[in-house]
Every structure is written in C-alpha cells, then in structure tokens.
Design brief:
CATH architecture: 2-Layer Sandwich
Radius of gyration: 19 Å
Distance between the termini: 14 Å
CATH topology: Creatine Kinase, Chain A, domain 2
Largest sheet: 3 strands, antiparallel
Helix content: 40-55%
CATH class: Alpha Beta
Number of domains: 1
Shape: globular
C-alpha cells in the first residue's frame, strides 16, 4: 500500500510511480491507485526470489519518497477507508466493479500470491489436493490484518473475510484430475459466470497461463523475514507433494474450521490436526511438519527460513500481534503506521 509518510493514510501515488518507472511486468497497477503490485521473475530458491522482491520494493519506495510517500506491508490498512480510494484507470477494473458492485469496491486489501511451477496439469491438481488441508496454516503464519477502518476486529486476518465475498472466492475444491478442473472452468465460462480463468479467485488455484499452482490465501506479511518464511514453506509443501502419494482427503468441514481459527487467532491459535484430528497449537504443528518435510528431502536452507521465524514468532507473535501491540502502545494510528514501516525489515 502507498501511504503518506506523515499521516500514514493511504495515498493515490501509484500513477506517479508508474510515470517514473515506466511500463514493466514487475511493477503493476492494482484496483486502487493507492496500491502497487510487485512481482518477481521465476526463481529456483526462496532467497533469490526474496532478493529480487527486496530490490523492487526499494525501487518503488525511493520513487515514493519524492512525493512524501512510502510503502506499507499489511493485509488491510489500519484506518484508511475503501470509500476514499480512487479506482485505477483500467477497463478491466471498471468491468469488475460493474459486475461485483459493493463487493469489489471494498477490495482494499493486500495479499501475497505465491506461484509454484508445476510439471503438468495432473500434478498441479495432485499438489492442490495435497495442500487443501493445510491451507489454514498459510493463513495463520501470514495473518496481518487485525484492523478494518480503524476498528479492532478481534480477528488476526480480517482481509480473508473481504476476500471470500467474491463470486468465485473462498476455498477451492478437491478435483479428480486436470480434466475435472477443465470441466469446471468450461462450465463456469459457458454459463457466463467467469470470463476467463483469471476470474476464479479461490484462495488457491491452478494458473494455466503460467503453468503454476498459485497460493493466494495469505495476507501480505508484516516483514521481509515473515514473507521469506511464508514463501519457503509454501514452496516446500508443494515440492514435497509432487514426489509423494496424495494423502487421504480431509473433510472440508475440518478445513473450514481450521481456516476460521487461523482467521481469528493467527499463529497464536490452536488447530485441529487435519490428519490425526487432535488439537495442536499452530506453531507446534508447523515445527513437526518441518521434520516431515526434511525427511522428504526438501532443501534444508529453505526449511531453516521457516524454522528461524518460528522461533521469532514464539517470542514476538506475528504481524497481527505486532499491529495490536503498536496500537496499544501509541494509541495513534499515524504513529502506529510509521512504527510498522520501521519494523518491517524491507
């Protein structure tokens, strides 16, 4: 999010950024002129992807400084209202607003979308089925949206409640194979429900144009290190799933309950282990899971990015905890946003 460096409020500075940087696939417009999308090239390690992301972030931030602006990493802005945001000058966004109305107009949220390359369509569906039961963990470790229009929501990730309001939002489904997914998308297109696969906004989806599985459930994490841990964990789970048998399907009711627990409590929550159905704290589950991923042969450098952050989260909490603590300490949203920017590590 683009914010004013003094007030901390969202500022419509994205058009200025593009006027300086020019047309590039790495830095792109979003629905509102106060939001910038930053995305990397293809990488084969989390560290290299994060280095490019850092370089792009700094490039945008330097441009914004010329307008007394800055970037803010958060799932929602703590106080700025969606009614005050200007819509970007793009026909697709106006069509989106015309179709979805109030639901799209409230879409003043930021998430992290992680694309993981797949060898083929059937493997993509296999990995998606594998990741469905653990999607709530992705949400829990990224949870970074406890405020909505200056209100304490009591949620760690309020963004997800806005995201799920889209016509094709929410959790994806189990599919038998790639053909089953194709039938689903063809049916949606034939009935006028979507214009293309891009209009499927599930929290995880195949992306045929890129040959990837796109994990979209996460809030924009609070810091550089949180982001690196999130990307490394998502990548590790997907790579492990490619090489192993698909697990037994977990009932969607259990996944939905864990999704709610992640939304409500973030990394401080207790989830239902999707495989044993025992209650377990999120971070304990994740720690055990890293041992399993190591046994699958996942690169230890990737797993260490997650393990180090687990230690940090145990002591300091996640992004949502940090936002709440800053608000309780400052009781002033402008000071809180400045402090968030100082602590984000970008």
């Amino acid at each position: 999010m683009c914010v004013d460096a003094d007030s901390g409020q969202q500022a419509p500075l994205a058009p200025y950024v593009f006027s300086v940087i020019g047309d590039t696939p790495r830095i792109k417009p979003e629905l509102f002129t106060s939001i910038v999308e930053i995305n990397t090239e293809i990488h084969t390690s989390t560290n290299s992807a994060m280095q490019e992301l850092l370089d792009l972030y700094k490039q945008v931030d330097v441009v914004l400084q010329n307008q007394n602006g800055a970037l803010l990493s958060s799932g929602t802005h703590p106080v700025s209202h969606w009614r005050d945001q200007e819509v970007s000058d793009d026909p697709r966004y106006y069509q989106l607003l015309k179709r979805l109305q109030w639901v799209a107009r409230r879409f003043n949220i930021c998430g992290i979308h992680t694309h993981i390359g797949m060898p083929d369509g059937d493997n993509c569906i296999k990995v998606m089925n594998h990741l469905l039961p653990i999607m709530p963990v992705f949400l829990a470790i990224s949870a970074n949206s406890p405020f909505w229009h200056g209100e304490k929501t009591g949620l760690a990730a309020s963004r997800i409640k806005i995201f799920e309001g889209l016509s094709q939002g929410g959790m994806p489904f189990y599919f038998a194979d790639w053909q089953d997914f194709e039938h689903c998308t063809q049916r949606l297109m034939a009935t006028g429900s979507i214009g293309s696969v891009r209009d499927i906004w599930w929290e995880m989806r195949p992306h045929p144009d890129f040959g990837t599985l796109e994990i979209r459930i996460g809030d924009m994490p609070a810091s550089f290190d949180d982001t690196a841990a999130y990307v490394a964990y998502a990548r590790a789970e997907a790579m492990a799933a490619i090489g192993h048998e698909e697990p037994l399907k977990v009932h969607p009711s259990l996944i939905r309950e864990n999704r709610w627990r992640a939304c409500r409590y973030g990394i401080r929550g207790t989830i239902i282990d999707p495989f044993s159905e025992e209650l377990i704290p999120v971070l304990d589950w994740l720690e055990k899971r890293l041992d399993q991923l190591a046994a699958y042969g996942i690169d230890d450098n990737e797993l260490q990015l997650v393990a180090r952050q687990i230690s940090y989260w145990r002591t300091n909490g996640g992004g949502a905890d940090s936002q709440r603590e800053l608000y309780n300490t400052t009781d002033d949203f402008s000071a809180m946003v400045r402090a968030m920017r100082e602590l984000d590590g970008w």
